[in-house]
Amino acid sequence: MTDIKSKVQSLDPNLAARDVQEIAGSTGNIYEVLNIISKRAKQLSVDLKHELHQKLDEFATTSDTIEEISENKEQIEISKFYERLPNPTVIATNEFMQGEIFFKYKDKKR
Predict the structure, then answer these.
(1) Which residues of the chain register pLDDT less than 50?
(2) Residue partners of 36: CB distance under 8 A and separation at least 6
(3) pLDDT value at position 110?
(4) In the prediction, which pLDDT does 43 show?
(5) Would you call 4 exposed, middle or buried from its count of C-beta atoms within 10 A (0-12, 13-18, 19+)?
(6) d(C-alpha 102, C-alpha 80), whole Å
(7) What pLDDT, on the 0 to 100 scale, is given for residue 61?
(8) Cα–Cα dist 87/93, whole Å
């Protein structure tokens, strides 16, 4: 997961217009491509969320009162880092356009 974070930091987090014909070129069907990208985006989202919660759990303290909530600078910095990462859909689209996503059909009925 660390290599994904370092790789995507250089990506532009903003959405960009894409050529539909270019995206659909590898499968011939834009809907199949969108399905592939959305599944990869879900994987990335789950992985990043799990990793963030693991890091934030290191700072977790159990207290019985609400008044004892304290701010931790490291915790805030970790949260800000993950907020600055591009959306998982942007990452997955970039991976697909670079040819980094492997996909295959279980049962092709055509």
Answers:
(1) 1
(2) 27, 96, 101, 103
(3) 54
(4) 93
(5) middle
(6) 31
(7) 67
(8) 10
> What residues contact residue 2 under an 8 Å CB cut-off, 6+ apart?
none
Pick from 42, 44, 78: nearest CA to 59: 78
Residue 94, pLDDT score: 87
Let me know: does 86 contact 56? Beta carbons within 8 Å.
Answer: no
Domain boundaries, the chain: 18-97
Q: What are phi and psi of 38, to 5 degrees?
A: -65, -35
Distance between CA atoms of 46 and 33, rounded to whole angstroms? 20
Q: What pLDDT was estimated at residue 72?
A: 75
Q: What local confidence, expressed as pLDDT, does residue 75 receive?
A: 83
Q: pTM for the complete prediction?
A: 0.74
Return the sign of the alpha-carbon dihedral for residues 15, 19, 23, 24: positive
Name the nearest CA neighbour of 4 among 53, 54, 57, 40.
40
